[in-house]
C-alpha cells in the first residue's frame, strides 16, 4: 500500500503559510481548518513545518510576544518529506523514528499533499475492516 492511496481518498489540499506570516495568522489557520500543522513555503518551495507542538513549546518561553512573531522564527526547518510512491509502512516508520505526526508529500520539488498520523490510522482501520469482511466471506463460502 502506497502513500498515493491515502492521497486519493483524503485529497491533495495542503494548508500552507509563508515564512513572513505571523504566529497569530498560523494559529487562526490551525483552528479554522482543524489541523495540527501547516507547511511553510517560500514561493513554491517547502522550507519548514509549524505544528501545534512548536507553538506550545514557544509559549512556555515567550508567550507575550509569540502572536506577532514570524512563522520563520518558530518553525522546524529540516522537514521530513515523502513521495506518493513510498509505502505506508515506511511512512509509519519515519513518523515513529522522528516522533512527528505530519509528513508533506513532495514530487519533483512540488508539494502535492500531506499525510498525518490520523490519516494513517484511518487507512489502517479501513484495511483491517476489509480483511475481516474478506475472511468472513471466505469462511462462509
Ligand atoms: P507533530 O508531532 O507533527 O505535531 O510535530 C512535532 C514536532 O516535529 C514539531 O516541532 C514539528 O515542527 C516537527 N515536525 C512535524 N512534522 C515534521 C516533518 N515532517 N519534518 C520535520 N519536522 C516535523
Automatic annotation (TrEMBL):
Domain of life: Bacteria
CDD domains in the cross-refs: CBS_pair_bac_euk
Domain CBS: 8-65, 75-131
UniProt entry keywords in alphabetical sequence: CBS domain
Keyword GTP-binding among record annotations: no
Signal peptide: none
Family annotation (PROSITE patterns): CBS
Record carries keyword Acetylation: no
Pfam families named in the record: CBS
InterPro entries noted in UniProt: CBS_dom, CBS_dom_sf, CBSX3_CBS_dom, Diverse_CBS-Domain
This protein's name: CBS domain-containing protein
Organism: Devosia nanyangense
Amino acid at each position: 500500500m502506497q502513500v498515493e492511496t491515502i492521497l486519493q481518498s483524503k485529497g491533495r489540499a495542503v494548508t500552507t503559510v509563508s515564512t513572513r506570516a505571523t504566529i497569530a495568522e498560523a494559529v487562526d489557520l490551525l483552528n479554522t481548518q482543524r489541523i495540527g500543522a501547516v507547511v511553510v513555503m517560500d514561493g513554491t518551495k517547502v522550507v519548514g513545518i509549524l505544528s501545534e507542538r512548536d507553538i506550545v513549546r514557544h509559549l512556555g518561553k515567550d508567550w507575550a510576544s509569540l502572536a506577532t512573531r514570524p512563522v520563520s522564527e518558530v518553525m522546524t526547518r529540516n522537514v521530513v518529506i515523502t513521495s506518493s510512491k513510498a509505502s505506508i509502512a515506511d511512512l509509519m516508520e519515519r513518523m515513529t523514528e522522528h516522533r512527528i505526526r505530519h509528513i508533506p508529500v513532495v514530487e519533483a520539488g512540488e508539494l502535492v499533499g500531506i499525510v498525518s498520523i490520523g490519516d494513517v490510522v484511518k487507512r489502517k482501520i479501513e484495511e483491517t475492516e476489509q480483511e475481516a469482511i474478506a475472511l468472513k466471506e471466505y469462511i462462509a463460502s
